[in-house]
Specification:
It is built from 24 helices and 17 strands. By secondary structure, the chain is α/β, with parallel strands linked by helices. It folds into three domains: 150 residues, Orthogonal Bundle (DNA polymerase, domain 1), CATH 1.10.150; 166 residues, Beta Polymerase, domain 2 (2-Layer Sandwich), CATH 3.30.460.10; 237 residues, Metal-dependent hydrolases (TIM Barrel), CATH 3.20.20. The radius of gyration is 26 Å and the shape is globular. Bound molecules: 2'-deoxyguanosine-5'-triphosphate, magnesium ion (MG) (2 copies) and zinc ion. The protein binds one DNA strand through helix 2, helix 4, helix 6, helix 8 and strand 6.
DNA sequence: GCCGTTTTCGGCCCGACTGTTTTCAGTCG
């Protein structure tokens, strides 16, 4: 799929136009198109060839022509033209705090800065302060921005900072005068990675609340501080934004601060057309303020149902809300069991029984124990004899823990030659067989896709785990053809996993939404290697909600009896 | 560049904080 590649080009085209000082709305149109294409629940090439691209709002004649050019020739001439005019590496500086298109243009035109190192040097040589409309503060800020950018330009996986964020929220709630407080931003939308922490609080004396916040011991540096908001750097290097409003505005401000930006822009545009104005303080009809203590009032005033935060990406959710057609998303308490759990038999840290007891504490009815298979030696993969002994132990524990049920499973390696790591006579004895890739990540698309399709064509393979293999901030997805994988999953009744492990989240939101279009059914598994990790389930559910999945799309929302039947279906139909 | 049962031209979300601007532009949320 060329979606990502094309999206990246349009995003850069947007940057180029901003840098060149073109009409900012034109630049924004490219960025908008980039985001639409990135989040497209289909293959852009297919849409282009069937003429359906023009039906998408925000994609017009010029963009379609460029998409066509890229698909046919692998190049976009207008883009190449701009690229030859702008030094490589220059636009990267737009990601540096305090540097926007105007600043960058001045730096380039006057000091001929073209990259990170030259800009650092210019700051150190105190060349910046003398430029027109610049000064010593600006110079100092740019240097700080450069260092911050160098130190930490990546985004945090949501699971990695979940506890820190909830702790910070408690700190805010404990500030005297705070009435209500909530986490907003990408965290509330359950995005897989989080750029910064956004917290909203309500209270009367906003200035004092903000001052108290800046004195918290977890705060390293204040970036900005005013009467309604402040930005700080935490000791962890993360940025946190606090917004404080009167309690009557809490709902409107939560709506604003939850975003996404594109969702807000779309919503505000609709409000405007209807004769309203929305901002973070409320919704206005002329001069009259309609107070919004509750977020749903904002939506209700526009004749819309409340939209779950996970859907607020302007990916079509507002149109659906207008038709009162929002899906009923899977809820965080819908999960009845975990389908991807390791034990000390392979590389897990706790016994089967300990994992089962932790699952019982979470209110689950079942888990599937899925230790690694024999060829995965680094993870203590199970030889066949050990696997058989494990099955016997599971039988024994099941007698003790009934009616809770431990299913016999395995995470069977799809070997480099495309075969599975256990023979069928063994697989058929297992209740739930996971197949997954742990080697040969560099295979080309044809080979990698064939390996995975082969696995799905095995009668006994219940699910493909972490289907694209990506690791957040560490490894790109391997070259699997998502569409072919989805088609085969659907055809063979093989489930695809939404792996909830904090740095996998695989399938991700976009791919899961694509998979649903092809009729795929899912399980959410945590890939837990100890009992605390069972709690990562929420991140997987978050991605499922972001993919608009409902309870019926996800097999491990079924109760024990139904689940027992569901995992037999593929074998019966084969 | 995109869009339109109020428009095919003239709009495109709205506001806070900072710095050097003596009245507001730039960046960011
Ligand atoms: N109306 C409006 N709201 C915005 C704009 N920019 C940001 N917001 C709102 C919506 C965002 O979700 C929220 C927090 O801004 P952030 O920059 O922190 O973005 P967000 O948390 O969505 O993503 P992140 O993970 O931090 O990159 O503020 C804007 O240009 N207009
Ligand atoms: Mg944020
Ligand atoms: Mg923020
Ligand atoms: Zn695993």
């Amino acid at each position: 799929m060329k979606n990502k590649e094309i999206a990246r080009i349009f995003d850069e085209l947007g940057d180029m136009l901003e840098f060149l000082g073109e009409n900012p709305f034109r630049a924004r149109a490219y960025k908008r198109a980039s985001q639409i294409i990135y989040g497209l629940p289909e293959d852009i090439e297919k849409l282009y060839k069937s003429g359906k691209l023009s039906e998408i709002k925000g994609i017009g004649e010029s963009i379609i022509q460029k998409v066509g050019e890229f698909i046919d020739k692998g190049k976009i001439s207008a883009y190449e033209e701009y690229r030859s005019k702008i030094p490589e590496g220059l636009l990267e500086l737009l990601s540096v705090p305090y540097i926007g298109p105007v600043t960058l243009r001045t730096l380039y035109k006057t000091l001929h800065i073209t990259n990170f190192d030259e800009l650092i040097k210019a700051c150190e040589d105190k060349l910046i302060r003398n430029l027109p409309n610049f000064g010593p503060k600006k110079e100092e800020n740019i240097l700080k921005g450069l260092l911050r950018y160098k130190e930490q330009s990546f985004r945090f996986p949501i699971g990695l900072i979940y506890d820190d964020i909830t702790k910070l929220l408690e700190d805010v709630k404990n500030i005297p005068g705070v009435i209500r407080a909530e986490i907003a931003g990408s965290f509330r939308r359950m995005k897989e990675t989080i750029g910064d922490i956004d917290i909203l609080a309500s209270g009367r004396n906003t200035t004092e609340i903000i001052r108290d916040f800046t004195k918290l011991p977890t705060i390293k540096e204040i970036i900005s501080e005013g009467e309604t908001k402040c930005s700080v750097l935490l000791l962890t290097g993360m940025q946190a934004d606090l917004r404080v409003v009167d309690d009557n505005s809490f709902g409107a401000c939560l709506q604003y601060f939850t975003g996404s930006k594109n969702h807000n822009v779309k919503l505000r545009g609709i409000a405007k057309d209807m004769g309203f104005k929305i901002n973070e303080y409320g919704i206005f009809k002329g001069d009259e303020l309609i107070p919004c203590p509750d977020e749903s009032i904002v939506y209700k005033t526009l004749g819309l149902p409340w939209i779950p935060p996970e859907m607020r990406e302007d990916n079509g959710e507002i149109e659906l809300a207008q038709k009162c057609n929002l899906p009923k998303l899977i809820e965080y308490n819908d999960i009845k069991g975990d389908v991807h759990v390791h034990s000390t038999y392979s590389d897990g840290g706790e016994s089967i029984k300990a994992m089962a007891e932790a699952a019982i504490k979470k209110g689950y009815e079942y888990i599937v124990i899925t230790d690694h298979s024999q060829s995965l030696k680094i993870a203590k993969g199970l030889e066949i004899e050990r696997l058989i002994r494990q099955m016997e132990e599971i039988d024994k524990i099941n007698r003790e823990l009934a009616p809770f049920k431990i299913f016999k499973g395995s995470e069977v390696d799809i070997k480099h030659d495309g075969t599975l790591d256990y023979p069928d006579e063994i697989l058929k004895q297992l209740d739930f067989v996971i197949a997954s890739i742990h080697s040969g990540f560099k295979d080309d698309e044809k080979k990698m896709t064939k390996r995975i399709l082969n696995a799905m064509e095995n009668k006994y393979v219940t699910m493909i785990a972490h289907p694209t293999g990506r690791i957040l901030n560490a490894r790109d997805p391997y070259n699997v053809n998502i569409i072919e994988m989805c088609k085969m999953a659907s055809k063979t009744n093989t489930f695809l996993e939404i792996n909830a492990y904090f740095d996998r989240l695989d399938l991700n939101d976009i791919n899961a939404r694509i998979a649903k279009e092809y009729g795929v059914k899912f399980c959410i598994g945590t890939d837990s290697h100890n009992s605390i990790q069972l709690n990562m389930m929420i991140y997987g559910i978050g991605q499922a909600r972001r993919a608009w999945l409902t309870k019926s799309d996800i097999i491990n929302t079924k109760n024990l009896q139904e689940f027992t039947e569901e995992i037999k279906i593929k074998r019966k139909k084969f």
